[in-house]
Amino acid sequence: MSSLNWVRGLNATVGRLAPRAVAGRMRRAFMTPRDLPLRDWELPLLAQAERVTLRFGLSVLRWGSGPVVLLMHGWEGRPTQFAELIKALVGAGYAVVALDAPAHGRSPGREANVVLFARAMLEAASELPPLKAVIGHSMGGASALLATQLGLRTEALVTIAAPGRILTMLRGFARYMGLPARARAHFVRLVEEKAGMPARQIDVAQYHLDMPGLVVHAADDPLVPVTEAEAIHQAWPDSRLLRLEQGGHQRVLGDPRLIEATLHLLDRIGQPAAVVPLTA
């Protein structure tokens, strides 16, 4: 029996006897990211970056100069996963600022969630020039969408492999981990209490999205179903849906069609009159 099957079996059994205890353990596991090692192909780009610590302790990497594009990686991700996109943006004359999300990389914290990701983006934006675009992958995309509802201003927004409905993802995780019905309900409530926001509110169908956007998703994504992209696109009047047949959850970040579509979106909204540098 695999370790995952063993955990599922334990959750199913103990979850019926002590649903709150099992839900609490799963909540902590769900919100505690692992520190995964960089791949060799990420190292050259990391060596070219300038690292800046923002006022509230968040760590960011910066490349290039010009209008600012803010990047937010996904759960257990890192800025250098955007390597091909970063190189293309810098080559096109943009400054790229990529966050280490809370509890990731060199940013502080031990636990994180989509609300903390969104607030981190607001904190970063308060120290940056007006944003040309925001690009988020997976939870980073969900947090970017949420951040725009909390006051983040950007001329354009790109989501990649992002969920649009957090409650759906929470219930899916709980089922995947074998939690019985009562334990699943406790798990959702505990996540909501920790995040400080009802999961039903973190739903793109309730958002007002008034900027141009691009929604990118691969049909073979094993973690976030492509139907999430379709829901985002449907709720976002001025968005384009780029549906790729292959790319999984991570490989899609290096797809040339994603890069081309992102640069096309930025060309569409034009260049600002002036650029103010980021202050370290």
TrEMBL record:
<feature type="domain" description="AB hydrolase-1">
    <location>
        <begin position="69"/>
        <end position="257"/>
    </location>
</feature>
<keyword id="KW-0378">Hydrolase</keyword>
<protein>
    <submittedName>
        <fullName>Alpha/beta fold hydrolase</fullName>
    </submittedName>
</protein>
<dbReference type="InterPro" id="IPR050228">
    <property type="entry name" value="Carboxylesterase_BioH"/>
</dbReference>
<dbReference type="Pfam" id="PF12697">
    <property type="entry name" value="Abhydrolase_6"/>
</dbReference>
<dbReference type="GO" id="GO:0016787">
    <property type="term" value="F:hydrolase activity"/>
</dbReference>
<dbReference type="InterPro" id="IPR000073">
    <property type="entry name" value="AB_hydrolase_1"/>
</dbReference>
<dbReference type="InterPro" id="IPR029058">
    <property type="entry name" value="AB_hydrolase_fold"/>
</dbReference>
